[in-house]
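Example is below:
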Amino acid sequence: MTVYIDLVFLNNLAVDASVLMLTAKMRHLRPVRLRLFSSALVGATYAAAMFVTRLPYFYSFGAKVIVSLLMVLIAFGYGGPLRYVRNIGAFYAVSFGTLGGVIGISFLLRSARSPWEGMTVTSGGGIVLAWQLQLGLYVVALILSIWIFRSASETKKKSLDLQQLFWDVEIRIDDGVWGIKALLDTGNRLYDPLTRTPVLIMESGVWKDQLPAGWYERLKNESPDRLLTDATSGGMAVDQWKWAHRIRLIPFRAVSGSSKLMLAIKPDYVLLSRDGHPPVQVNRVLVGLDGGTMSSEGTYRAIVHPDMAQAGADASAPSQPA
């Protein structure tokens, strides 16, 4: 049997790229094209290398799993263990679905009196179909490509609509600058009850190194007023902390209906910006610290108060830092 390595390489390159694109669509990801191509290139190279290498265990189950994990990592990045595991699961689901489609098409188009005719079991435990699967692979890849292409405009529109909710936030305190991605939540109506200052809610992990020792871990489960009490009784002079004069305690009502307190810091100012809009400086704002993780995907780490976004929408020109 004559095997053309270039055709094997190109065939796997096309199929791997289609599988990766469909995985990205399932996970609502927008990977860089170069990363996607590099990942497909790794898979195609691995498939073609079997005809020119004779390395022990190079095509074992473990090696194949490692290559697939590497492909997912190259295409979509890491982004944390939960996000990585979800991407791997979607990649395998799409791969198995594509393989099932190929086998289904092969049996549909192949003429035989028995479903077992034309099938040969190799000594290694593999199955060889008499009907060539290259055509089936191209048919499945073509169907997937057409479906992705037809839904591209709708996906792009949804992505643009979603992007309108995301803002780039830059928080400045003294000489420190922290840039994060934030989500506009029109349901966030948290104010300082005394001054009616809007509160931008942010993961406390952003300021993990700025908070006093132990506060980051304790904010996950404890009320901030207890932190202040324990710090004072434990011999720590809270007023010696560099941001002590910026501390605020903001009362709020949790989803369960119970009343709680949130530790907030008064920044010098916050800059809001997004694509197509000039940055706007917001001086009247507090940064409330949340002890949890706002997005399991790491898409955003703060929630913008709608009053801040409205200030950005009404601004006709960017404000200059003082």
Observations:
- Residues 133-163 form the longest helix (31 residues).
- The mean pLDDT is 78.
- The longest strand covers residues 176-184.
- The radius of gyration is 27 Å.
